[in-house]
Amino acid sequence: MATSNPTSPDQISPSAPRAEFRVEDLALATDLSVDTIRFYQKRRLLPPPRRVGRVAWYSDEHIARIARIRELQDRGLSLALIRRLLDGELNPTDAPLAEAVASEVASEVITRDELARRTGVPDAIIETIAKQGLLKSQIRDGVEYFSASDITTLSAGVRLLEIGLPFPVLLDLAQRQHEMTQTIARDAVEIFDEYVRIPLQEKNLSDSERAEVLVEAFRMLLPTATMLVAQHFRDVLLTTAQEHLEAVGESAELSAAVDEPNWNRSGTR
Q1: Of 46, 74, 141, 230, which is the most buried if we count CB atoms within 10 A?
Q2: Residue 182 falls within a domain, yes or no?
Q3: pLDDT at residue 4, rounded to an integer
Q4: Would you say residue 197 lies in a domain?
Q5: Are strands 50-52 and 143-147 parallel, antiparallel or unpaired?
Q6: Model confidence pLDDT, tens digit, residues 58-81
Q7: How far apart are CA 48 and CA 61, in angstroms?
């Protein structure tokens, strides 16, 4: 929507855009809040507006840029990654990989209020867990969203609380597990970078061919690594629990544990 208060003729240079908007008009035209537009500016997602005195004037370029930001957000890209992509800082081969990674993140999203309602977990606790990095929120159009899969995570946590685990103890355990997992994940990403991504850049392939191979490698790596880590943790946890019961448990507890089907896939009984 073009502004109804255009600058005076002596303020507009011959090269200035014909359609210009104040920030309030840009907000209406893009269905965003003024705060969100300023947030995008602060994150360098939008080019600076043309300023006349203390008034900032936006153009159709800003509308197109916001539309592109929203499109990329819908595909799951983070704002930091979107900025690099829009500014041409991302290697053409890496862009499809970034989208493949983002597509795994961009599942159904829900607001914090909806997450609290569907899990019965108070908003204050969700905020605490998110600050610890145990839940990853996304900012879209200035609104905080969480993955719908977090419903399963929080619901599992509630069940652990219901059997008697104190919240501070459970939170501390989750935080330590998170930190160790982050370390292993960083190592895995560096290994992928060193032995897959970088050597691929040196092969005599087109950008599209490199991107295709890279995405295919990632799509194989993700479920395989996830399965290996989950299965190994399960096996170690079960073995450790059995050893603990053998040391301190009563005979009835140990008997019940040993009789549990699939107690330990390694065959340890």
Answers
A1: 46
A2: no
A3: 42
A4: no
A5: unpaired
A6: 999 999 999 999 888 877 788 888
A7: 11
Domain with 36, as residue range(s), is: 9-74
Q: What is the pTM of this model?
A: 0.63
- Spatial separation of the C-alpha atoms in residues 45 and 61, rounded to whole Å: 12
Question: Could you give the number of structural domains in the chain?
Answer: 2
Task: Give the pLDDT confidence of 182-191 residue by residue, as tens digits.
Answer: 999 999 999 9
Q: Is residue 264 part of a domain?
A: yes
Q: Give the CATH number of the domain where residue 70 resides.
A: 1.10.1660.10
